[in-house]
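Throughout our pipeline, every protein is held as a single compact record rather than as scattered files. Nothing more is needed to write down the fold, since each code stands for a local backbone conformation. The record that follows is passed on verbatim for readers who wish to inspect the format.
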Amino acid sequence: MNRRIIFTMLSFLFLGVFILNGCAKKPKQEDTVVATVNGDPIHVKDVNRSIALNLKRDPMFKVTPETLQDQVDVLIDKKLLIQEAIDGKLDQTDRFANTIKTFWEQTLIRDLMAHKDREISGSVSVNDKEIKDYYDKLSHQKTFMVLKSKDKGMIERSAGMNPDSIKWEGTIGPISYDDTSSGLVMRGFDVPKGKMRVFEYNGMYYLFYTTEDVEVPVAPFDEIKTEIRQKISNAKKQAEFKNWLSGARGKADIKVNKDILRGLSYSHG
């Protein structure tokens, strides 16, 4: 499996092994169950580790109801992957038996990733039109104003307004097509300069407004055609994996104790 894909997936799924003492307000909270996945518990201490790791990586990380829910979602996905690997008896292989016990979860998930990559690769194909479309977008460096909301109606109404009257949430760019791995931003490259378009992405609605479109030099098509094909293939495989994981979540018996989650109090120095 492509090492960059593995790293991207694992950075999204792994929480690491980092413990920060004093994360929870009450010591006894550590063993309280926040959620269950097919009966397998997720404890407050697991959420604490996730929060601590994020703070270690990004000192600007803030604990909010939204980011707290994100951490629980990551832990749920991790549980699902481990359960899938065990169901597939990947924990009974010689390779796994020889792995240090401390890293057994990471090993299982890595093996599952490789297994899923082999499965997905057989269903992924890239045609010449996709390669040419990708190449044509490489010569554009764009800047976008972006507005996002769960309210589809609000976003659609904003799309009919004068761009100068909209309170935009932020700016993306200037950015080249090859410099982003975000499927949402890639879709933004279909929006001509001076135009707006609405996109739905991961349950949210986005309004993209292209403010700048600058031409940039690109290598000859024949020199980078193979590289482009691989990039498109990798992106499709990642999308297929996310769809599979979403399906696994939909089938799983997941219970989240929202009262416990809301009651958590963190004190990080």
Summary: The longest strand covers residues 204-215.
